[in-house]
Amino acid sequence: MDSQIVTSNSSNSNTEMKRNNVSMVFPNRAQYYSSYQLQNFSMPDSIIFYISKNPSSSKLYQKLIQSCKHFFIKNPIIIVPKLHFHRRKGWHTQGNRPSKNRPNGRTVYFNEITSKIWITDELGCMPACSNWPVVTSFKPQIYQCDATSIYFDQQMFSFNDLMVIASKCEILHLSSVVIMNNDEVIPEIEEDQFYFETAVSLEALFKALPDVKTFTYYLPNNSLNIITSKTAEELLKISNFLSLDKFEIREIPEIFDIESFYGHIKENKKTKIDLDFSLQISDEYKTRLQTIVDEILETKNRDYKVPSIYFSGITSSSRDKMYALCRQN
Fold first, then answer.
1. 8 Å CB contact between 83 and 124
2. How many angstroms separate the CA atoms of 241 and 296, rounded?
3. pLDDT digits (tens, 9 = 90+) for 221-231
4. Region Disordered: what ranges (predicted)?
């Protein structure tokens, strides 16, 4: 069966839709289309056609398909608040039919659905597998993504794809993700060095995503071009970076200019900063980090938010003291 999440134009369905604020789940297309009738609108067909194909918002589209099936049939879109990827079962969301294990709704999978999808709140892909192009392969099915929270793990896709998916993102979590600065064919494996050489830099991400407030990035094993010697300096030129609520980055390579960034730390009164450095950094770099940590801990009157700084080799006393100070922020 070709399952669809759609809304009926009956008054009973409208009442239930408003009460549950989610779409109804029908067992097959035939059940939905069987009661469809041609409509005679008071407006010209050209205007109705334009309205059908160009809904200005998901809420408007939802109202249209609640009022008349014509709009769904002419432009079938499923409104999905939260869309997630399961590594064995694929993309899914929750419908409004409760079950024993899911009292607030059952899981609905999209493996056989042909309609476009409009994501309104959250998009997550945490596959824990080596199939990198999961997001890219599904993107043609996305009509629009207004998600403000995005979570990606082990993904590789183009910069243009990211702009389509994350243009309204406020919470962005990336783990072992590589974003390329072109539309080359996405490889099936991570190790292709070429694709790391074309990776988009960290500062380029912030310039392109001005609405992000919470940013977490667990860098891939090879962060070539994502972090460079100019990254810290360039980040501090970006206004939305300076207004972040949270900035967390892990596996930082020693090419990162920690001295420049430390200058920002001592002036930062807003952003919660969490820096975790790669195991591959040199002893010399570790010494520089320890000096910064010691200076922060020895400063009596701090008028900035104490960051979390961790690296292999940090003294246990320094780690514990910094952790305690961060909790007080």
1. yes
2. 22
3. 888 789 999 99
4. 1-20
